[in-house]
Amino acid sequence: QVQLVESGGGLVQPGGSLTLSCTSSGFSLRGYEMRWYRQTPGLERELVASMTGSGTSTDYAAAVKGRFTVSRDNGKNLVYLQMNSLKPEDTAVYFCNARYLPLSYNYWGQGTQVTVSS
Fold first, then answer.
1. Which pLDDT value is given to residue 59?
2. I need a surface site. Which of 37, 47, 68, 118 has the fewest CB within 10 A?
3. Alpha carbons 46 and 70: distance in angstroms, whole number
4. Residue 16 to residue 99: CA distance in whole angstroms
5. What is the pLDDT of residues 22-80, one digit of tens each?
């Protein structure tokens, strides 16, 4: 069964840090473009960070640039989103997305809640 699973969400105070993880079952993440999205109720899903399949290039939304870092460990089949200096407006459900365009593969995780509040 092909599946993406996120973990690491939770409640954190403003200024704190969290690291989200994403792993897969049924396939390897190696070579997949990886993206992290977030969504709050009533709003569209927002692309937060992305990393190419080779891992050589990353991109970030302006709202998180300098605070969030996406990385991958192919040996452990994991992709991470390190989130620092968290703000209340970072509160959202965060989703992991794995894409392999040559074969039109596009997988989503179920999401993990991140709440930034004092």
1. 98
2. 118
3. 15
4. 30
5. 999 999 999 999 999 999 999 999 999 999 999 899 999 999 999 999 999 999 999 99
- Cα–Cα distances (Å) from 86 to 26, 82, 91, 94, in that order, read 33, 10, 9, 14
- 91-100 in b/e burial notation, b at 16+ Cβ within 10 A? bbbbbbbbbe
Which residue in 45, 19, 24, 25 sits closest to 34, CA to CA? Answer: 24
Phi/psi region, residue 55 (left: phi>0; alpha: psi -120 to 50; beta: rest), is left
Q: Is the pLDDT of residue 92 over 90?
A: yes
